[in-house]
Amino acid sequence: MSISVSHINKSYKDIRALQDVSFEVKKGEIFGLIGPDGAGKTTLFRILATLLIADSGQASVAGHDVVKDYKTIRNCVGYMPGKFSLYQDLTVEENLEFFATIFKTTIKENYHLIEDIYKQIEPFKTRRAGKLSGGMKQKLALCCALIHKPEVLFLDEPTTGVDPVSRKEFWDMLKRLQQKGITILVSTPYMDEASLCDRIAFIQDGKILEIDSPEAIVKHFTKTIYNLSANNMYKLIESLKTYEHAHSVYPFGEFVHYTDTRDVFDIDELQHYLKNIGLNDITIEIAKPTIEDTFMALAK
Amino acid sequence: MKLFLGFIKKEFYHILRDRRSLFILFGMPIVQILLFGFAITNEINNVNIAILDHSKDVTTKKIIDNISASKYFSINAFIQQENDIESVFKKGQTKAVISFEKDFNQHLIKNGQATVQIITDATDPNTANTISNYVNAIIQSQVKELNKGIDKGYQIIPQTRMVYNPELKSVFMFVPGIMTVILMLVSAMMTSISITREKELGTMEVILVSPLKPLQVIAGKVVPYIALSVINATVIILLSLFVFKMPIQGSLILLAFETVLFIVTALALGILISTIAATQQTAMMISLMGLMLPVIILSGFIFPISSMPLVLQIISNIIPAKWFIIILKAIMLKGVGFSFIWKETLILLGMTVFFIALSIKKYKIRLE
Amino acid sequence: MERVIEVESLTKKFGAFTAVDSISFHVKKGEIFGFLGANGAGKTTAMKMLIGISHPTSGKATVAGFDVFTEAESIKKNIGYMSQKFALYDDLTVKENITFYGGIYGLSRAKIKIKTQQLIEELGLEDIANNMVGSLPLGWKQKLAFSVALLHNPKIVFLDEPTGGVDPITRRQFWEMIYKTANQGTTIFVTTHYMDEAEYCDRVSIMVNGNIEALDTPKNLKKQFSAHSMNDVFLKLARG
Ligand SMILES: Nc1ncnc2c1ncn2[C@@H]1O[C@H](COP(=O)(O)OP(=O)(O)OP(=O)(O)O)[C@@H](O)[C@H]1O
Ligand SMILES: [Mg+2]
């Protein structure tokens, strides 16, 4: 096991940030931590990265205990905290060089690991990090976290603020790192990224609700989801919310995802209801549930 | 080692790129020294002095005439006895009294030397200093005149004495104080700020979870500031040497050694502060209130320790700056060697070791 | 329809580097305008010029009827702004933040009191009204920041990546707030990297290297680029 966590508890004053958290991550696995803000993801990362000590429970990373062998762990993991900013007064290249040095490597040696992302900010390598756009900073931070080849990589919301194209490239990179045998623990607020993980854990209020592969998790979603659209999105959402049989109503891109409280659902009745309210171009069709639907159903 | 050098390189980037801080860092000592220096040494002109002539002979008359002829002085009183000196000063007009000993001329001829006392009012110590220098110059030119064509040289020995404030405060006396304040500021405040900045940025988290050892991080933060502080100390000493012609009486090597010791003390304090403070602001406030104020008020820099209330006198003993100022004054002004200041040095060394140990112990290897 | 933002050949250069390269567009009153683009495309830079805190290198622009060159102060009174990094003071409580921002926008004390009460109720923050904002989850902060940006009933609100890093549920609550605000006639100018959110906008522009490469309703954009979703449109365009 590359990461193993058993019965971890951690509280801050009156908040129980983690409650009896247990899971295991195999070597070379991409394991996703998914959960709403304040669920305890960052606390978990910090415990595994040897930055915090849990109140009770055990955890080990790459076979080393996070409390006793913290020095060994620090030599073999990579960590990118969620709130990570770079040295604003250092240039892009100097930042990267610094992190390469403290991780005992050089840019040249590991350039191939970061090439796809780095080449997008490389034209600006002499620019001070403080003058980069928000997403460019995040990309540089990613490069800094990936410039060495750790055994285990902890990434706390690495793609926040990164544009969709670069996110895709970033995940391609993670997949390549995975093939080199690196274990990756990653948290993300993007549900499309969650489905790229080998396994994910839903975490809420410090508790793990479910652990499984994305495909399996989606299968746990038992209700039928309907894709609805109409000429006025806002009105559609409002009317659905006041519909007496509504179970859940969530906007989903150009559609609204709707679930009904009843086992047998009458499409015509709903269509009728919406028409009466004054909506036009109404379409209702069955949709496949996604991780995002599952997440929202669980978190509700 | 490569790790460590990489770290230091980064620190130097931070320091060199922050132009404003750099400017303050190097501008401040220069400005302070110049300010103190020039505000204090001022020209004198037509200063009132009184004469106490116990001898009333040809030579004293000659000297008195020369003094009253100079544009620097005008004689406003002739007093008759020692007791009158105080009352003359009290009136506030007279800045100095020149007192010739009894049988001045006879002593000069018989023994080849005579004594004159220059008593100055030390409420304005710098003017006092200048006055005695000028009076002395006039007397010495008179001696030259007397010695013309004679091979056995006469000597007039001036004894300078200050009333009211015998501990002279001049630019010379300020140099050790200013140096202490600046070294404290640069070393302690800047290191504590630079460490807390990493905490605020979130980069500390990454550095903790890296192969860098805590000791390397601390040393990496400290080394650049040792360099900066040494440069600063050198600038201050050069300024006082060349602009104010302050002679350094003692050994320069000893001075350098003691200065580095104090810099390390201050850096240890800075690291200690950064272990308590979570933000740059707090670090700055603690440095200012907790370090600068005591240094300025309790170290004897401005207010003589001997005239403080007993409680403060006792407290002043735990201020490293007090000991450093004593050491500096001893080396710079008195020119004494290590055998005279080993006790103070030992105290400072003890404090430094204590602070370093404490700050390493307190340095957090984790976030909480 | 009344145009509340009009931009013509607006340009911003940093030294030799052109961050925003002569862009032109307009935004209608009450519209939700999505301002998309890859990282470093120039969105934040353009937005900063529109809200009057950055001086354009050249071009023309009016916001709420005021010129960005000469009437920046009037613009600031008529708009709300939520920045990419900083919105609220972490070391002030929820209430204190509201009071502070109410104060700088010149609301009377009585009004601030009413508004504070109202906001706290609407957002369901009763229990934590006296907690430091720094201790709130990001999504709550962002919702609070949005409400604060609306305190002075601005004509236009500029939101720079308001939902970055926010979880799916809170993100949707945030967009419901946006819808509601737009429905009341306030114009919304918003940037995002979530492509499902792009679908919620009335019109969307996509910036590439300082230029606006496409601008239309999500529906038309999908048609134009024969794409399934806005995500596909973006992938096709964003890398030039
Ligand atoms: N003060 C500055 N000096 C120099 N270049 C700057 C400055 N501010 C921004 N830039 C550059 O202008 C370009 C556009 O930046 P901007 O912040 O507008 O991007 P953005 O579209 O908001 O990106 P993101 O989605 O990452 O937030 C970037 O290349 C950035 O580095
Ligand atoms: Mg931006």
UniProtKB/TrEMBL annotation, chain A:
Pfam families: ABC_tran (PF00005). The keyword Transport applies. GO terms for molecular function: ATP binding; ATP hydrolysis activity. InterPro entries: AAA+_ATPase, ABC_transporter-like_ATP-bd, ABC_transporter-like_CS, ABC_transporter_ATP-binding, P-loop_NTPase. Keywords: ATP-binding, Nodulation, Nucleotide-binding, Transport. Residues 3-230 form the ABC transporter domain. Belongs to the ABC transporter superfamily. This is ABC transporter domain-containing protein. The lineage of its organism: Bacteria, Pseudomonadati, Bacteroidota, Flavobacteriia, Flavobacteriales.
UniProtKB/TrEMBL annotation, chain B:
It is a multi-pass membrane protein. GO terms for molecular function: ABC-type transporter activity. Residues 132-366 form the ABC transmembrane type-2 domain. The chain crosses the membrane at residues 21-40, 171-189, 225-244, 251-277, 283-303, 310-328, 340-360. Its main location: membrane. One of its GO terms (cellular component) is ATP-binding cassette (ABC) transporter complex. It is found in: Cell membrane. Keywords: Cell membrane, Membrane, Transmembrane, Transmembrane helix, Transport. It comes from the Bacteria. Pfam families: ABC2_membrane_3 (PF12698). Belongs to the ABC-2 integral membrane protein family. This is Transport permease protein. It comes from Yeosuana aromativorans.
UniProtKB/TrEMBL annotation, chain C:
SMART domains: AAA. It is found in: Membrane. GO terms for molecular function: ATP binding; ATP hydrolysis activity. PROSITE patterns: ABC_TRANSPORTER_2. It is a multi-pass membrane protein. PANTHER family: ABC TRANSPORTER G FAMILY MEMBER 20 ISOFORM X1, ATP-BINDING CASSETTE, SUB-FAMILY H, MEMBER 1. This is ABC transporter domain-containing protein.
